[in-house]
Design a protein that fits this description.
2 copies of one chain form a homodimer. By secondary structure, chain A is an alpha+beta fold. Chain A has 2 helices and 6 strands; from the N terminus they run E-H-E-E-E-E-H-E. Chain A has a 6-stranded antiparallel beta sheet with strand order 2-3-4-5-1-6, covered by helices on one side. In chain A, helix 1 packs antiparallel against helix 2 (89-99). The interface between A and B is large, with 36 and 36 residues.
Chain lengths: 118, 118
Amino acid sequence: MNALGRHLLVELYDCDKEALNDLDLLRGVMLDAAIESGAVVLGDSFHRFSPQGVSGVVIIAESHLSIHTWPEFGYAAVDVFTCGTTVQPEKAAQVLIEKLGAGHHSIAEIPRGVLVAV
Amino acid sequence: MNALGRHLLVELYDCDKEALNDLDLLRGVMLDAAIESGAVVLGDSFHRFSPQGVSGVVIIAESHLSIHTWPEFGYAAVDVFTCGTTVQPEKAAQVLIEKLGAGHHSIAEIPRGVLVAV
């Protein structure tokens, strides 16, 4: 299939609840994940919510990574959206799975921009 | 189904190619879309690529919106990820469809964070 982008929807369950509430830790893990996948980081934006939870996005030259956490449920929703052939989004997902201590997870890949003419 | 988040994957085809390459226009449309959906905007980050294409993310209190454009193909990949009951992500998608002049489009909704205990 000819697709412009690869989009991994990563569901992380039974994670380390303290990690899911730690903005600095999450930002570091997300940047590590981006770099490990081979991406070029262009910028990032992270926010911590009250009483809990963090949202963050890393913009990369090849698209983006995002995370939203629900510490109270040990759950994080991660997206790894990449384009081009130089980035391996699976590697980013693996970094998140390991560093957030996910007890179980699922990864669904959605092709984006499926163009007949490409 | 009890899900923590609603994630719309929006594929926009046959868009206005000039619009897809105009960072300021795209940022305005994305912020309009977020506000129209009822979201609270916390921040944004947009980047223009050479020779063409724009990536941008709007962080909202209810998760995020993102866009990646390929002007050469008239295509944009949009994500609208929301949580809670006060936001209507379909409204954000509709703003993008209209303001980018999409000739055709598809919207797939993926529930995120489906927890047995919720």
